[in-house]
Design goal:
- By secondary structure, this protein is mainly alpha-helical.
- Helix 1 packs antiparallel against helix 2 (31-58) and helix 1 (3-27) packs antiparallel against helix 4.
- It has helices spanning 3-27, 31-58, 71-100, 104-135, 144-149; strands at residues 61-62, 141-142.
């Protein structure tokens, strides 16, 4: 069922939009709007993560259904996306903890990197979605490790 990947991908895009606007507002000096937008960005990122993990556990992940000659480039791109998403998620948690604990100098320092990583993660996630469900639909659904390794 492709509705869950569509919803989760939409959530990560919405999260990135909130992060982008949140960054814009802090540059303008509007901390209150920045805080609200970043919290909404975190909520949508968490919603993405919960849907993704639930789908992975209960359904599995979709393997690449495209041509054989594109499998290696796709998997290299997927590994890049997964690395970005993992680093972005960890940095996101650390950045939020610094803000909640009022360690704003540390929050500001890491937050810039976190935002950049997140704003790269979202489009790479959309590309993965397009490759799996739009351009080359039909890949099998398998447990996560099989899909990632291309088994």
């Amino acid at each position: 069922m492709h509705i869950l990947p569509t919803i989760s991908t939409s959530f990560i895009v919405i999260s990135a939009i909130f992060v982008a606007f949140g960054w814009y507002y802090i540059l303008k000096g509007n901390r209150e709007t920045h805080q609200k937008l970043m919290l909404w960005g975190a909520v949508f990122a968490l919603a993405f993560f919960l849907i993704y993990v639930s789908r992975t556990i209960f359904v599995g992940n979709t393997t690449f259904g495209g041509p054989e000659n594109l499998k290696l480039p796709y998997h290299l791109f997927l590994f890049f996306h997964i690395a970005l998403a993992t680093v972005g998620g960890v940095f996101g948690i650390i950045t939020l903890l610094h803000a909640f604990n009022k360690r704003f100098a540390k929050h500001k320092k890491i937050g810039r990197w976190t935002a950049v990583i997140w704003l790269l993660t979202a489009p790479t996630g959309v590309i993965v979605y397009i490759l799996l469900y739009v351009m080359y639909p039909g890949g099998d659904t398998k447990p996560m490790i099989d899909a990632i390794l291309g088994l």
